[in-house]
Amino acid sequence: MLFQRTNLSKPSSPPQGVQFAKFSAEALTAIRKLSPDKFLVLFTPFLPAWPQLSGNPQSTAPSTNDLSQRKYMDPFEPLGRALSLHHASVRHVPYVPDVGILDIHVSFLRSAGAAIVLVAGDELEDEGVMEQWDFAYDVLDAVEGCVDVPVVAVQIGHEFGSAREQEAILQGFDTVLRCPYDALVGDRGVAQRIFGV
Would the pTM count as exceeding 0.90? Predict the structure, then answer.
């Protein structure tokens, strides 16, 4: 599914910490009570040279204390590890935004008990960010025929556009988390919000 681009305005202030933009108690309960024999699939974008994870979107130098910036590590691996503290079976599956959903992604979805799709970046005018949202909507389409597979979207960035713009892009998702670059993992990170700790 392709999302129509619109001109977007910047919000007056960035969000503080990980927040729910949309919340489905039913979806979160299903994830929290996911059977150990079912796995949670985490789809993350492959984004080479993405400096925003340092906490400063203008920075090109990674923080040496930031685990997500260690050389040769997927920048979203710490999120996968944080999720695995709450559920025993997490499958971290990357996707390439400009390639989109592939048969391998659909295969993982059909075997999964739940899915989390990460969209990195807040510039909705950016083609790479829109391609990530296209992938997220393709995930929603793919789980349509699956029974009880909740999908949570996680949007990483600092500025998310107006409420009207967000309503348009988040259409179809029951649960959406917004997360600043520097709050992906930690005491109140994404995993803790999803699992209610």
Answer: no
